[in-house]
Amino acid sequence: MTRCKITVIKRTINPELAEHYCVDRVTPCPCFQEGQDFVCGLGKPEHFCDWAWRDIHPMVAVLLTGGNFSKGMFEGWMKDDRTMIGCCTDGIRPVIFRIEKIDG
């Protein structure tokens, strides 16, 4: 069975935006840790942030339904057409994910 492995590769923060727009001190996203892995099908993995899932689910769906990121506007973008890098859309503290199609 084909699945996707989602790996948290970086938690970031935009301190200048946080200082300007946020009320309290902001830290990187508390929902994830760098190196954390999730394996999934088309459904959201257990304990995965709903907001981040909404953002990366289209990439998971492409990989799981036979598509890849080596054609069209993505041609020449990813070294491995079974992988995509995506992130959540939190502009203050985004999390960056590696999304890989895996077999088994």
Helix-strand layout with pairing:
Blueprint: E1 2-11, H1 15-21, E2 37-40, H2 50-64, E3 83-87, E4 95-103
Antiparallel strand pairs: 1-2, 1-4, 3-4
Task: Describe the structure in your own words.
The N and C termini lie close together (5 Å). It is built from 2 helices and 4 strands. The radius of gyration is 15 Å and the shape is globular. It has 104 residues and is an alpha+beta fold. A hairpin with a 7-residue loop joins strand 3 and strand 4 (95-103). The chain has one domain.
Keywords for this structure?
single chain, alpha+beta, 2 helices, 4 strands, 27% strand, globular
The assigned structural class equals alpha+beta
Q: How do the strands line up in the largest sheet?
A: 2-1-4-3
Topology pattern, helix = H, strand = E: EHEHEE
- The tally of domains stands at 1
Tell me, briefly, the overall form.
Answer: globular
Main beta sheet: strand number and arrangement?
4 strands, antiparallel
Strand-residue proportion: 25-35%
Low-confidence stretches: none
Average pLDDT works out at: 93
Distance linking N and C termini: 5 Å
Helix content: 10-25%
